[in-house]
Amino acid sequence: MSALDQHPLVELSGITVDFPGVRALDDVDFRLFPGEVHALMGENGAGKSTLIAVLTGTCAPVAGTLTVAGVPRRFSGVADSRAAGIATVFQETQLSPNLSVGENVMLGRERRGLLGIDWRRTRIDAAAALARLGLDDLDPRTPLAMLSPAQKQLVALARSVVDDPAVLVLDEPTSSLDQAEVATLMRVIRGLRERGVAILFVSHFLEQAFAISDRMTVLRGGRLVAENATRDLERADLISQMLGKDIESLRALGSERKAHHYATDGEAAIQASDLGRRGEMGCTDIEVQRGEIVGFAGLRGSGRTELASLMGGMVRADSGELWVDGRRVDLRSPSVALQHRIAMSTENRRSQGIIGELTARENIVLSLQALRGWSRPLSAAESAELVDTYVEALHLDPADMDRPVGLLSGGTQQKVLLARALATRPHVLILDEPTRGIDIAAKLEIQRRVSQLAAGGVAVVFISSELEEVVRLSDRIIVLKDREKIGELSNGPGVTVDTVVEMIAADFESAEHVSGNTAGGDANR
């Protein structure tokens, strides 16, 4: 009997969750059956984390019902969820690094005797839990600190199944694993499915979701978009559901493609060969010329930010080589990148960009002052001249310059970050989501400025979740999926959002075919 011939083990009906100023889930239905792997798909802000929070008891819906094994439930905390047979393994493993494997597996469930914890029996139980997952070779006495990220993830999984849960929620379980480690985890998941465990699998890795899941539910903007049997769903259709784009015209693209090769003269402003970092980004080749805008396109989790961070010195590569203006460099930190005239504006402006307590003026001069060194402070006149330059160039309000930047609008904050990067006169400018969450006027202003910078000879890397924006601005588009570069497009009249989406949806072999046979021409900014 298939899983779908049974009654749902978990059923959510009409679930609605409100946070201040936003409806995170809006009348969502969801079903999870015994012995199935169910992938929960959606872009950032789709509502996946909120749905998990409802299941794990950390978020109470304002409307709707939750039923587990036919019994209506209203969880008031994680303990209620666990008592109902629901266990969760989060992206961050939440293990204790100073304890052993067995102590982590049995934490809170140690076997006790007359004199306290019976460690021998506790280790036996831990070994049994590991063995149920096919991890017989993992010694419970091993210090957790000695394990690889994949092994730690499996220890967290073993801890979650000690109580034989009926439901297992896996939240981005493969985010820090390499391909071999992912294969091990997938084997364990299949074993749990065969034992009848209902598994909710949440991941941004499309190929993994297709490989392991029986069904998929897609959320977008807090609403249920679709529930599909995985075997009946094409990749292009899934991406269409996630992005809300109609891509029926994709089928006609093949006949419209013409061979096109992007060619430039001169030395690349920045060039990478086999650049990567284990568990974060596969080895990648890329180059960006002076005066060129190269867009990174892909779904969240595709590797856009990871690759940009390696190129901008935010994260240090552990493989490959990087050249800037023809010289090999080792970007150990953002400050070293600045010395090589590489400036980066990060995706999360609040936690990694602006310093909210400082004024907008102080934020703008920050990177230039760091580049000069604190022993040579900018004079008041130099600071004023610099700030005035970007107030005019980016149409900032002069009255905002002496206010704490944390109190300003999102659009103004983004312009301040751009001004900070430009103040260093970069040869390479890396912009990660520079227009996210800002109004249309500010967005157009930033797009216009980026085009002007490229026209002035700056090499620009541009990342946006809005594919229309990437296609509109970019001379070339690097397409990424599952933290690998899968292809490259030279922009032109024949390149559309649908072209990029088709490439993301295709298998790797198909993607290579697309990248070599896509129509192109002069950049259409």
Describe this structure in words.
By secondary structure, the protein is α/β, with parallel strands linked by helices. The chain contains 19 helices and 22 strands. The protein has a six-stranded mixed beta sheet, with helices on both faces. The protein starts with 9 loop residues before the first strand and ends in a 9-residue tail after the last helix. The model is unreliable at 247-263 and 508-525 (pLDDT under 50).
Let me know the number of strands: 22
Q: Report the structural category.
A: alpha/beta
Query: Tell me, what's the shape?
Result: globular
CATH topology-level fold name of the largest domain: Rossmann fold
Rg from Cα: 25 Å
Poorly predicted spans = 247-263, 508-525
Classify the helix fraction into a percent range: 25-40%
Q: Order of strands across the biggest sheet?
A: 6-9-10-3-11-12
Alpha carbon gap, first and last residue: 56 Å
Main sheet makeup: 6 strands, mixed
CATH superfamily of the largest domain: P-loop containing nucleotide triphosphate hydrolases
pLDDT averaged residue by residue: 82
CATH architecture of the largest domain: 3-Layer(aba) Sandwich
Secondary structure layout plus pairing:
Layout: E1 10-19, E2 22-32, E3 37-41, H1 48-56, E4 63-68, E5 71-73, H2 78-83, E6 86-89, H3 101-105, E7 112-113, E8 116-117, H4 119-132, H5 149-160, E9 167-171, H6 179-194, E10 198-202, H7 206-212, E11 215-220, E12 223-229, H8 235-243, H9 253-256, E13 270-277, E14 281-288, E15 293-297, H10 304-311, E16 319-324, E17 327-329, H11 334-339, E18 342-345, H12 349-352, H13 360-372, H14 380-393, H15 410-422, E19 428-432, H16 440-455, E20 459-463, H17 467-473, E21 476-481, E22 484-490, H18 497-505, H19 508-516
Parallel strand pairs: 3-10, 3-11, 6-9, 9-10, 15-20, 15-21, 18-19, 19-20
Antiparallel strand pairs: 1-2, 1-4, 4-5, 7-8, 11-12, 13-14, 13-16, 16-17, 21-22
